[in-house]
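Case 293 in the screening queue. Each case pairs one protein sequence with one candidate compound; here the compound is guanine. For every case the pipeline is the same: read the inputs, emit a complex structure as tokens, and attach any notable structural observations.

Predict complex for case 293.
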Amino acid sequence: MPSPLILDGKQTAAQIREELKAANILRIASGQRPPLLVAVLVGNDGGSESYVSHKIKACSDVGFESRLIRFASDIRQDKLLSVVESLNNDAQVDGFIVQLPLPPQIDSQAINLAIAPSKDVDGFHPVNVGRMALGLPTFLPATPSGICELLRRNGIVTGGMHAVILGRSAIVGSPLAQLLARPGEPGNCTVTLCHSKTIGIKEHCLRADLLVAALGKPGFVTADMIKPGAVVVDVGTTRVKDHSRPSRFVLRGDVAFDQVAPLCRAITPVPGGVGPMTIASLLTNTWQAATTP
Ligand code: GUN
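Case 293 output:
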């Protein structure tokens, strides 16, 4: 088996950022202001802090404006709802995200429902989820659309593939199943969506031409689950303690990369695979929010 193509999300995301940066320079030259993304961060969960800081940095890399609004973890729901309402009504704000997870006193769906669909650059509002399901123009959720863009820009043709997705979350697995099944490229896959109650996961995986692991279980996908020549996408980013590193942790994917990679046609690394693409897709959505009348 020839060595696998590494689906380099870092490089592909850098290419997307270059395109957005160039488009933004033209926008500013025409007298318009740059897009503005606002991120709302509640509490100080390490993972959320890190994701949000990457999002803010990505904005500055492409010349977008950004604003981070922080709240303590004991914020009341009515206060957070009023913040959402003021962002909905602020004409300077093109798009905003409320970073998940939220603390237990907050009903995340109530917050999600309060976000104006036209500013929902996460693509989580039911209106946008419905538009995606119908194939209408909308904000696509960043991780699934980042995966599709990574496949597309790296020449992976998915038409006719049997795609097996591990994990049915509303943020990744479920929307990705829809995107891969719909007409077009990437798309036109026959999709199997596996989850914690699936019987015979290994047998499903062995039938996958495209295997996407999004369950948050480090090293779950092993070599004995891979059809030789498969394309493997690892969405896992579990923070595992590692005291030998200055950050005190390491990011572990859902795929046992070292044993799986030799069997694959193409595979994403962790880190540097899906993660940077997710952030690039958020920038794309923010651009769309600012430029769609
Ligand atoms: N938490 C994990 N992923 C995401 C995401 O894509 N958006 C938001 N808002 N929170 C998240």
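Case 293 observations:
- The two ends are 50 Å apart (CA to CA).
- The chain has a mean pLDDT of 97.
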